[in-house]
Amino acid sequence: MWVKALWSREYEQSRLFFWAVPVVHFLALGFQRMNRWLFTELAVVNVRLQQIGHARIPFQEAYGNGEYETTGRLWLLLAMFVLALVQLGTERKNGSQELLFALPYSRRQIYMHKWLLGAALLTATVVLNTAIDMILVLNSPISGYFSLTYHLAELGYTWLTLLAIYSLVLFVGTITGTVAFQMVLSLVLFILPAGLIMILRSSLEVQGFDVVRPYDGDIGLSAWHDRLIDWLSLTTYLTADYDRLTWLKALVMLLLLAAALTCGMLAYERNRAENNGKLMVFSGWELALRIGFVVCISMIAGLFVSELVGFSKRIGYDIGLVAGFVLSTLAIRRLTRMRFHL
Amino acid sequence: MLTVRNLYKSIDGRPVLANVGFALAPGQVAGVIGRNGAGKTTLLRTMAGILDPDAGSVECEGKSIHRYPSVKKDVVFVPDHTESWHGYTAYGSADFYSRIYPGFDMGYFRATLSRFGLPLDRNVRLFSKGMKMMFATTLGLATKARYVLLDEPTNGVDPIAKKQVLSLLMEAAAEGTSLLISSHLLEELERMTDSILLLKDGTVESYTSEDIAGGRFVKLQVAFAGDAPERWLASDDVLVLDHIGRVYTLMLSTEGEGRAYEELRSFDPILIEPLPVKLEDLYLWKLGGGNDVG
User: Is A101 on the interface with B (CB under 8 A)?
Assistant: First the structure.
């Protein structure tokens, strides 16, 4: 299973990441901790320590409730996102895929080496920077609030969340034919669930179907769609502070990881290299893209025109819906037939 | 034996390969010819496992290369570009291959690159087009795989480099490596190959050197006493290659019990002179009729 040559090929392709990612992670996490507690005037530190002493959960306050970890997570997301683009999207264009597929290894082996390289990079940077952060905390004025549970929870959650999203972007790379579209579709996935629910809800409201939004709480998440949006948005998981980390969130990420890894591997095994350069390399996914694109654009066009038409929002919506349907159908038909060199 | 069985492959709904079948025996050198877009590269890429066939199989010693990719240790594909090596030096790419192909001959690789005057430590990206093709061909042959598939190995290469690449291939063939070469260099293919695979409309027609050298066709210079028999000249078994005054240069099929030749004799021409058949003649006959360039 383990092939040194494949590993070296993947490493050569992404060598820069192995040096840059831990450094960037350190700048977002350990360095910020040093700034706050080691490079600050003693008087300011004392004020902060007093605040911690008065806090409801002192150790949580001392750690800033995970704000540095969240920032680090976002920087790591960016790095892992680009790595996935380099590993799958770019190789379609630069001939690497042709070389790899001609080698005496199964595509599953090739894909697993790619994924393992990303996983190894992520593990290395998360473990290394957590260790550095622990050392820093133990040697800082907040050493009395040191919590191993905190560090392990942040480490585990960050690792799981980023590995799941990295696997998702890799999977998107296995079904899209260009690096540009891999990037676009991956970004769309970040907003798609929330966006789709919002335009669906607005469309229903224009058509006279009132979606009940009870004003019954401070949290503002009482309506079904708000809760759904919260659970389906990747940003919810990425930006979760320490007090919002739950086993349920971790379970959702674990399921996403398992699904994305499995689907990515299956798609890579069946890769249609002859379709490189097209938006999608599989006809089934192309159909899904066409339907999704037409549905979303039609509804958005409907909502847009409904705002422009003064006499009846409903008629405006219908006009926009039909116009959006026609235009988006023509546009996506043309786009899916084109071959891009990006 | 590298065997292609009933291979079908469509791209963008267009059938590129349809029921393609042939075998490459150990030590055999075969050329793949066809017009641009006929499917030569698709055939080689499918045989190398880069593309999956819609139906049919490619088998190396009886094992499907798509189902058992490990058998590709004996099948190497040399594409007509070297983009995939652009991050590597010549030595780096050889080092990479040496970890994959058990028979990789680093001594041969070094010696051949030195013979061609190619630096081992320079990034492949910085090589000229000709140098890139010499490098790629050397790298493919250095694997010492039993079957080497080459896609346009002399594409964009100057005449001197072309000669060097071809001499390298001839040396490998002499050592017993089976080569499948896609090329438009018909003269060179004719000299090097034991057989020719002609791709047209997705199908393959196989011709041995004997077929081309008069076994299945004859090339004649013919002069008719009176009017030329237009209907006969337009028949399927006859191709007019050239025509000056009463003198025609013709290709005749000798299949179908040589009926075309018998008919020709019945016209009682004043001159029938056999000419040597070249691969180019076959190419023109089989592929020159239409405007299809894929």
Answer: yes
CB contact under 8 A, B96 and A9: yes
- If asked whether residues A179 and A310 sit together in one domain, one would say no
Strands B2-11 vs B55-60: parallel, antiparallel or unpaired: antiparallel
3-class DSSP assignment, residue B9 = strand
pLDDT in tens, A270-303: 999 999 999 999 999 999 999 999 999 999 999 9
| Helix/strand/coil percent split, chain B, to 5 | 35, 30, 35
Full residue range of the structural domain in which residue B85 is found: 2-208
**CA-CA distance, B253 to A162, in Å (whole number)?**
68
Contact B91, B120 (CB under 8 A): yes
Host domain of residue A129: 4-195+212-278
Structural domain includes residue B282:
no
- Any domain includes A205: no
Alpha helices in A176-223 (DSSP H): 179-206
Residues paired with B59 in a beta bridge: B3, B64
Burial class of residue A202 in the structure, from the number of CB atoms within 10 Å of its CB (0-12 exposed, 13-18 middle, 19+ buried):
middle
Measured distance CA(B217)–CA(A142) in Å, rounded = 93
Does A268 lie in the same domain as A158? yes
**Alpha carbon A134 to chain centroid distance?**
26
Judged by CB atoms closer than 8 Å, whether chains meet at B70 and A104 is answered as: yes
Q: Are residues A253 and A293 in the same domain?
A: no
Is residue B292 in some structural domain? no
Residues A272 and A290 in one domain: no
A-B CB pairs within 8 A amount to 58
Task: Give the mean pLDDT per block of 10 residues along chain B (294 residues).
Answer: 95 92 92 90 96 96 95 95 91 96 96 92 92 93 96 85 88 93 86 88 82 72 83 83 84 73 83 81 71 40
Interchain contact, B49 vs A102, CB within 8 Å: yes
Q: Does A1 touch chain B (CB under 8 A)?
A: no
Which pTM does this prediction carry?
0.88
Contact assessment for residue B196 and residue B28, using Cβ atoms and an 8 Å cutoff: no
What is the SS3 assignment for B68? Answer: coil
Chain A stretch 217-246, residues whose beta carbon is closer than 8 A to a beta carbon of chain B: none
